[in-house]
Amino acid sequence: MADKEQVKPLASATAELRSDDHIFLPPPPKLNLYRNKYIKCCGCFSALLLILAVIGIVLGFTVFHIKTPDIKIDSLSFPNDTLSSNSGIIVVASVSVRNPNVASFKYSKASTKIYYHNKVIGEGETPPGEVKAKDTLKMNVTVKIEPWKIDDASSLIKDWNSGALSISSYTEIPGRVKLLGAIKKNYLVKISCSLTYNSKSKTIQRQDCDQRVRISV
User: Fold this and answer.
1) What is d(CA 2, CA 115) in angstroms, rounded to the nearest whole number?
2) N or C: which end of the chain has fewer CB within 10 A?
3) Residue ranges of the Late embryogenesis abundant protein LEA-2 subgroup domain (predicted)?
């Protein structure tokens, strides 16, 4: 009789999982909801920071950028139009101060000197003041020329009588612009002008001015 074939038992239909196998389970719906909200909040916060940074840069280069006030001498006039060795002459310098900033420009007293042959022949001052934001202020600086106090009095009178008096002026205005109580700049504006005045036609024939600004914080 033939040997009976040895019958092997069938493998179990359900394989046992090894201890090192992991089962991936989807996260609960509530966890997904929190995660989505967190991602959205981070995105909104990042976008807000970016917008604020752009706004800050734009304001820094426009509104909060402190600009230099523009100061110039519009004209020089001689109200009395007479000059002699024993009588002086009044010179009135018309000065305009334009403030391009969004804050006021406060200045200390302005001083103006008149020169003849590089020597001071007159000096005048104006009291401290303030130029409002985006505004222009006009002021007059009065200077009295006294010929008897200078060595070239005869030459000065001669030029006056000839109708061509060449003089120069120097105006200095210190001031400050302050934004939001923290951002500030100090200015010292210096304006030098040379001109030729025609005493007969009572007009300025030639006038050249140069402005220089010194800035400090």
Assistant:
1) 143
2) N
3) 95-194
